[in-house]
Design brief:
single chain, 437 residues, Rossmann fold, 3 domains, 6-stranded parallel beta sheet, 5-stranded parallel beta sheet, 16 helices, 15% strand
Length: 437
Amino acid sequence: MIITPYTTQSAQGKSNLSKLAYRFQLADSSCREAVSAILQAIRERGNEALLEYTRKYDSPQMTLDQLQVSETELQEAYSQVDAKLMQSLQLAKDRIWTFHEREMQQSWILTRDDGSITGRLVRPVSYAGLYVPGGQGGKTPLVSSVLMNGIPAAIAGVKHRIMVTPPNAQGMVHPALLVAAQEIGIRQIYKTGSAWAIGALAYGTETIPAVDVIVGPGNQYVTEAKRQVTGRVGIDMIAGPSEVLIVADHTAKPAFIAADMLAQAEHDPQALAILVTTSQDIADRTIVELEKQLKLLSREDIARKSLADRGTILVCGSLDEAMDIANDIAIEHLELMVTDPFSWLPSIRHAGAIFLGDYSPEACGDYVAGPNHVLPTMGTARISSALGVETFLKKSSLISCSRRAFLADAEHIQNLAKLEGLTAHARSVAVRLDEEK
């Protein structure tokens, strides 16, 4: 049996729940040290170090003048992408764009009766770095990452969107990635990946400009590099392996449940697929379906290891208990395969994205539904949100005190400043009062 189901009240069930609730992990010490050395090399030696790493791990013959994708490569990419894929890209682009337009925040001003003006000025960052993973050496181009990273930045008004992605051994980027980038207005693309690409974006090199925000998924080296440059730049999140939790009652379809668990499991041996169900029968039939469907996958070995090592099936006493479990785990993708899923929506407090009903598989959200698929993992949905337009925005406070308001507030300002021992603060008010005399 690839996964052994347990009841939530059993000793093993309670142990599993405890581990799931506290699963946040950073990279191991060897990864941290390796990334630190890479970032230092990029910071100190710029292009020289960037080329060394790119040649060693991706493209042995890469030269400095090949580092940026050329205009010729951009133009030729269109001839290598078929019409059906173009239609799918356009559909995904339109859906994602329409959804994220609703996220745009506006500046605002509040005027008080005493003539003072306060407010918030919303402005985009100037430079955004968009990391797009290579996808099995360029064989499986992650075009959805281009759209999910680049569209919110465009809507925010970011002037410079810099995309980096690992080249293949021949020093090329898959044409589908180049077409997807151009379709959303990105033309500044560099052939470099992993931690050294993050370093280049964070610190800049002679070729790649330093950016203000870095977004996009990647392996543990990319994730650790983003963590280490946080503060120098903003980032979207510290992301772990992909994960799904399916809450199912007795009406759920085991074939659908198994298919959606496998959709996560095929990502990575560390991916996490969980079923919490009120029905022992559903649990048992799902296990049968998992075995049946595994044999149909091109990534069977990866999915099988993921399920064997991390897959979890728990049988609980009620849907109320299931929702409490979902909130404790705070999963990246939460699927509700229950009768009237919308009636349970008020019970959900923590989840990266929520998929309601039998015909809302997580794959819809990955590609064409519209909401962003860059989501908090490892329980961080308790405190953070999906990548969105706001990731690329910053807010400045506006304060304009009228003379009348200043005179009315002066005593209060001085009282608070003196209490905190900040005499210069109090004095900055006093000198203005002296001027009034």
